[in-house]
Structure formats: C-alpha cells, structure tokens
Amino acid sequence: MSKRGGRRPTIIDVAARAGVSKSTAARALAGAPNINAETRERVLKAARLAGYERNHLAVGMRSGRSGLLGLVIPDIANPFWADVARGAQDRAAQNDVSLLVFSSDWDAAKEAAHLSALRRARVDGAIINPVSDSFDDLDRFGLPFVLIGSSAERFPDTSSVGSDIAQAVRLGLDHLAEKGHVAPNLILGPKSRLARARFLRSVHQHCVERDIDPAILVMEDGEYTVEGGRLAMQRLLKRPHVGHLAVFAANDMMAIGAMMAAREAGLSCPEDVSILGFDGIPAGAFTTPGLTTIAKPGREMGIRAVEGLFDEIEGRPEHGRIHLPCRLVERASLADLSVGTPQRKAGAGRI
User: Fold this and answer.
1) 300 — alpha (psi -120 to 50), left (phi > 0) or beta?
2) Could you write out the DSSP letters of every residue in 27-85?
3) Can you give the pLDDT at residue 172?
4) What does pTM read for this prediction?
5) What pLDDT, in 10s, does the model give residues 322-345?
6) What CATH number has the domain spanning 11-54?
7) 337, 343 in Cβ contact below 8 A?
8) CATH superfamily of the domain spanning 165-296
9) Do 11-54 and 165-296 have matching folds?
10) Can you tell me whether residue 285 is helix, strand or coil?
C-alpha cells in the first residue's frame, strides 16, 4: 500500500494492511486504551510501512485540539534561548505535539504580530517571554499560556517558569569574593528591562549582607549582545582604576564582548582582567581563556514551561512562579587574588 501516482496513503490503506477495520486502525493510532497491545503494534507497523501520517487538522476538528503549541522568545540567535526552545520542543514531542517557534527580536510590535499569528493558527496554547515589561495584552490573548523570563515577575497570578536570579547572582558574587574580587565592575542590560533591575537588586542585597557599600560598584549598561558587551567594556576601561579589574557581565554574550574589548586594549585575561559571565551558553567553553559563568537551566526551563502549559490546557493550572536554580561553571577567566598571586601590570599582555 505504498504511495503510488502521488496519492497519499489513507487510514483505509493502513487498516487493510493491518487486517483490521478502519475504526480499529483509527483508535489504535489515536492511542485509545481499549486496543490490545498486539493489534496496536500491528497497526503502527502498517502505518510505518505505508508511509501514513495522521491528518492533524482533521483530528483537531474532531477533538477541538490542533496538536500545536506556540513559543515566542526574544532572540533565537542567542544560544540560551535556542536551548529553551530545544527543551520545549523535546517535551512537546513526547506528547506528539508540535511547536511553532517565533523570535520577536526584542521588538514589541513583532511580538504582537506573532501572538496574532498563533491565534489564527488555532494553537492549543503558547509560551511567551514578553519583550516589554509593560506587556499587558494577556487578558486579550484568548488562549492558555505560560510565561518565561524576567518579565513574568510582573504577573504573580500567572503560571511562569524562570531562573532563580537572586540565587544565581549570589553564587557569582560569592565565587568572585572567594577569588579576591569583592567589588567587581558590572556590565548590565538596558535600563528598560526588568532583568537589569532584578540583577542589580540582587547585587545590592549581597553587598549589604557583606557590609559593602553598593555605591562603590562601577556599572555600565549595554544591549544583551556581544557588541553591547564590547562597547560597555570599552567604557569601563576608560574609567580610572587601580590594579586588577574584575567584571561580572549580565549575560555570556556580553562577557564575550568584554573579552574582545580587553584583547583589543592589549590586556590579558585573567592576568589583567577577570571576567564572569551569566547564562552558560556553549560558546563560553571555546573562548580563550574559557569563560567562567553562572549557567541558567535553559533546557529545563523549556521542559517545565511545556508541562505547565499542558496543565493550563487541561484546566489544571499551577499558578505561581517556578524558580529553577543556577550553577557555577568554572573555567579560566578569573584570576585568583586570594592567594596573593602576583598580577601583571594592566596592559602587559593579551588574551
């Protein structure tokens, strides 16, 4: 019953090959519980041999479900968000559900267009990272949804999944302090982003707990990109400083940009400059030196978001924020000043 003349195999072809009725074949492919294992396996094998694919549109019309979920993330080119998408896709596939992925490019208008497209596509629900902290269109979305990312903090009554930023920042600052960097310079994101405020709030709390005046911290803002980190680092290097320079960047792409700027200035990492990243993207393992970073659980975030969305779709909402812990990935971009290791004068070497 293979395809001939361009004709797609039908459920009738599968039933004939398996030696069962059309209704039995359909129930076996749908996973109905009242089909014995031997019959189900015979039907599945017949479907594979025939090259049969279920018509999800027709199934959706009967069940009221499309078998599609939407995912709107801010930047698919950022490996962290790609990891989130991969986790969501893998988890959705376990339930025979497909995922439509959209990248808003940090543009609120694009995000609105993507959400409209998802509604027209009749997806069963969506996972959204609002690019604007003033995102207020949730009530009008009209479909089950789960939020991810920092903006979700503004919606405490909505199911959401994100990294435990406070725990992550403490982890990074504690590790820097153990290495002798008690007051690192900070490269932060744009002032318009809630993620920046949450990061900075955790830094201030850590300083107060350690009896450090937060006002002494030197900060530069930039976009969450390699170029944004590079430009912010250039501005930091123009500021007056004495001795070794330590930098904690708000994401790994910015940290990699900071390493580039240090190299361009004739500085060596970690001899002259220590740099700590945030996200845990794979590229950090291939910089020279390898980037020490606080890794956020991107893939786990995608998995948990899909599981939460399934609950929303089934009317079993688990309202509240799920905070996933982060972990330290130690490589070679931080100098250890705690042991009194002599450091070269700034500008004496290259990365």
Assistant:
1) alpha
2) HHHTT-TTS-HHHHHHHHHHHHHHT----HHHHHHHHS--SEEEEEES-TTSHHHHHHH
3) 97
4) 0.77
5) 999 999 999 999 999 987 544 443
6) 1.10.260.40
7) yes
8) Response regulator (3.40.50.2300)
9) no
10) helix
